[in-house]
Amino acid sequence: MQKNQTIFGIRAIIEAIxxxxxxxxxxxxxxxxxxxxxxxxGIIRKNxxxxxxxxxxxxxxxxxxxxxxxxxxxxxxxxxxxxxxxVDEVIASKKTPLFLLLDQISDVxxxxxxxxxxxxxxxxxIIIQNHGNAPLNADAIKTSAGAAFKIPICKVTHxxxxxxxxxxxxxxxxxxxxxxxxLIYKVDFKKPTALIMGSEQRGxxxxxxxxxxxxxxxxxxxxxxxxxxxxxCGIALYEVIRQRL
Length: 245
Hints:
Layout: E1 5-8, H1 10-18, E2 23-29, H2 35-46, E3 51-54, H3 56-62, E4 71-75, H4 83-92, E5 98-103, H5 108-120, E6 125-129, H6 138-143, E7 153-156, H7 159-168, E8 172-176, E9 193-198, H8 206-211, E10 214-216, H9 229-244
Parallel strand pairs: 2-3, 5-6, 5-9, 6-7, 8-9, 8-10
Antiparallel strand pairs: 1-4, 2-4
Helix pairs in contact: 1-2, 5-9
């Protein structure tokens, strides 16, 4: 495991990207211009690295007031897996695929808890977006009880990109959402499956729901209208396991 590292300076970050360092996120000073900054921004876009434009005060804090030149990057503690390669490997293994897609889960501890449950239920891989998802940082890894090092995690530009790849491999897309009447217990999880769980505030994006093959909900019998997403994810994954056992 790498320690959580921060690198700063435009040239240093460019060299890190060109050396295939896995970056969690790059923070760039907003409204800062120049040839070197343009080069960094171009490399960030080309490599589809998560980034944010922030005020200088944020960069000063991240770099502990060292000379950051307007850019700071966090090195990821986890090496991410290429999705297409992972799908091919899972299919070649002759085991029934089970993937988990997270549509912008924002809470770090929910993210870590989901990773832990996914590893316990033998999920083949977790798929997240470059932007909008909780960072896979030390807190998430700690909450996962180390499971983040044991399960493949893939990053894509958008969840839609992953759906195209999965559906092309005849893997059914099942969205867990309270916006339908169909119960999860009626879904055939013996088929190759990819589960989608939505964000804590908004649920699954409407455009993602439209692409899903099946939409299903968990029964809620009390007055509260929704479950914590990590709890709901655990219930859904164990229904998959129940059917497959």
